[in-house]
Amino acid sequence: MKITSVQAPSMLRPLTCVASVLLAGALSLGCVASAEGDWERETVGEAADELSAWYAWYHGTTDNSVGVNLDPTPDEATCVLSGVAGNLSVGSSWFQGHQSAAFVRWQSGQWNFIAHGGAYTDNLNHTSWEGNPVNGHATCFYYTANVKNATWDSQPAHLGVAPPVKIAELSTTAGSTRQCFLSGVLGVHEVWDTTRFARVVKKTSTDANHPTTGWYVEGNMPDSSNDGSHAAVMGRCVDFPSDRTFTSGQVIGTAAGTPTTITSGSGVKGCALTEISGVFNQNSWTDGALITAPSTLNGNWTISVSNNKSARWACVE
């Protein structure tokens, strides 16, 4: 299940790996060489009676801004971020530039998964990719009820940290439980060179930064001091049946990024990220926080978090 063929930061051809478990329980795993939109969407659908399937995709590149389309459609599943590694401290959001990014967006009726390094605009007004790697993992849950999206954007450092952005209320319908996940992280020049965080949080009481209860997406990155480019954090919520079992936790990184098992038992589970924290400025495909899906439908999920980083996760069974 590991992406073992994309270790060198100088990789010129992006590699995509997919691991999907469908209702029949068969696992497919493959890697193929592979060469940004209306990512936000709200849906109202029905929640399945039980978690009977999940879909996971691993995708890492230095310069592929097109991304890959995931098999489940937004009418079938809700896809979110389950891992990010590499260098998020390169890039620009202006003109022909690109932020270093890992995110899952809705585009033209499909889930589109982007993971690439940063780029700047050169003196000929062309895109100049910097070659830094970004590796992303995505998980799709086969639930589509009341999907909500929001994006937090950084602001100039002299204005302080930009306030949290509300994604959704705590819950909207009887018999359902809302869970939110990260759906994207975008970085620019030097903003992840010191310890930063990107997260979704559930607030059951109010405070100065969260004036109403609900789910919020937030970060603490400033705009780039180089050109004022914006960093961003994306969050996505979906309603699950209230009889599902939810677990969550935090993993502190180790120097070796040793995998930690985060689920147990034989039921079908699915997991994704709710927070990453630390310094993300290494040209590495594995330096980060990466949740890995099991090799069987009802197997257990693991997370690998590198040194000086931490991650929070949530799983649904």
Question: Mind explaining what this structure looks like?
Answer:
By secondary structure, this protein is mainly β. The protein has one domain (15-316). The chain is 0% helix and 46% strand. It contains no helices and 22 strands. It has strands at 15-21, 27-33, 54-61, 68-69, 78-86, 100-107, 110-116, 119-121, 127-129, 134-141, 145-153, 165-168, 176-187, 196-203, 214-219, 232-241, 246-252, 260-261, 270-278, 288-292, 302-305, 309-316. It has an eight-stranded antiparallel β-sheet, with no helix packed on it. The radius of gyration is 18 Å and the shape is globular.
Key descriptive features of the protein:
8-stranded antiparallel beta sheet, 6-stranded antiparallel beta sheet, 317 residues, mainly beta, disordered N terminus, globular, 0% helix, 22 strands
Structure described in brief:
With 317 residues, the chain is an all-beta fold.
Walk me through the topology.
Elements: E1 15-21, E2 27-33, E3 54-61, E4 68-69, E5 78-86, E6 100-107, E7 110-116, E8 119-121, E9 127-129, E10 134-141, E11 145-153, E12 165-168, E13 176-187, E14 196-203, E15 214-219, E16 232-241, E17 246-252, E18 260-261, E19 270-278, E20 288-292, E21 302-305, E22 309-316
